[in-house]
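Students often ask what a holo structure prediction actually looks like on paper. The answer is less mysterious than it sounds. You provide the chain, you provide the ligand, and the output is a string of discrete structure tokens encoding the 3D arrangement of the protein together with s-citryldethia Coenzyme A.
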Amino acid sequence: MIGKFTTNKTAELTIDGKTFSLPIIEGTEGERAIDIRHLRKETGHITLDSGFMNTGSCASEITYLEGAKGILNYRGYAIDDLAENCSFVEVAYLLLHGHLPTSEEYSHFSNLLGRFALIHEDMIHFFDHFPPNTAPMAILSSMVNSLSNFYPEMTENPMEDIDIMATRLISKVRTIAAFTFKKSKGSPLVYPRHDLSYCANFLNMMFDSPVKPYTINDDVVAALNKILILHADHEQNCSTSAVRLVGSARVNLYASISAGISALWGPLHGGANQAVVEMLEDIYASDGDYQTYIDRAKDPNDPFRLVGFGHRVYKSHDPRSRIIKKACDEVLVALKVSDPLLDIAKELEEVALNDEFFIERNLYPNVDFYSGIIYRAIGIPNNMFTVMFALGRLPGWIAHWKEMWDDPDWRIGRPRQIYVGPKHRPFIPQEERDKESR
Ligand code: SDX
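The corresponding structure tokens follow.
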């Protein structure tokens, strides 16, 4: 795929008096890269780029981010348009197929989601054997990994039908998430229903009860669709890169997605949405003293970071954060609830955005800053917030996994390194080592 984006421009690299011409690649939105795929063979040198701040891992047709302007497009469509006009299922289809579905394609995709909503009854016993208070992300990554044993056909011929492969996972992860929540409370499981939409089904599985039927609120369903759309993909972030790297060894989809779930769990990544609400709860408990947290975030000797702020790519507003902030207000009004944490979050944002430290470092609220407040308003507990992120990100992970499998340039991911350990030294037998240590 990369080849068709090579320009007639080159970058000249001179090493020890010898000059090498490296091709320049230009993407459809004008991003440019120096193609170093033959660098080591031609120059004997590799590049070094910890955290891959300057390194592209692939060419992709799925998502475009422009960090300075805060642009996020899925398959060319602006995130604002998709969040405003689509359901999460439509956007999942778009990410997987590259086009928005016709009504016939949409109904086929939705029917598959309904067909695959149950998990094998044997899997339900797994819940009984995790220790109490097991982290939901640990349960999710374990359960997803085990799916390859319940559906072995998916490993033999994974490209058989992307719709079957994707909807089976997108639907079952929703059920596993809801069952995890019910089991954590010792409540009876609520099974998926064939007559409910994707998000309404999830909410019903989470909150319905034999003794207190759950009333599905259309505003909450709309907000959940929007928030899952906002999380659905984000190009080569940490967890998507994990899915691609694990998948590049030609391991099955379920094991690759399980790796993505594990990466997303990190507090610097998807785990931030839970950490944000815990930070806001702490501020609330200290009578709203957010200044202490701002001061700590600015203190070079304090490892504390203002969670929900900053981003590797966005050096201006994260477009998702603005949409979620607006949805927060809408959901709280629809549910007739107020949340003091939202007021604290808004004050914190206001102060930080006017503070030189944050301005100089282009630190703005990211997708995680407000998302937890919506989840709280819906009734989702803190320890399920990152599971919600995984539910949203799943179509993006699958789309990237499939794109990698289909990519003619695909290679197993195997980065190099610069060795800085001891030079070669002779072996010392145990008795010599003991003598030396005396
Ligand atoms: C997600 O990649 C993606 O696309 C991720 C994501 C997605 O959709 O997949 O968008 C989802 O993970 C959002 C990010 C959620 N994480 C957090 O909110 C945790 C808090 N934020 C950070 O730790 C941090 O901003 C990162 C991890 C998000 C980005 O880190 P970078 O790009 O490696 O930035 P950096 O560590 O080089 O920081 C640059 C400077 C440093 O100060 P100096 O050393 O220059 O003095 O900014 C400072 C950092 O100390 N800084 C912060 C800060 N984030 C960066 N200082 C205080 N609070 C913060 N939140």
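The two ends are 62 Å apart (CA to CA).
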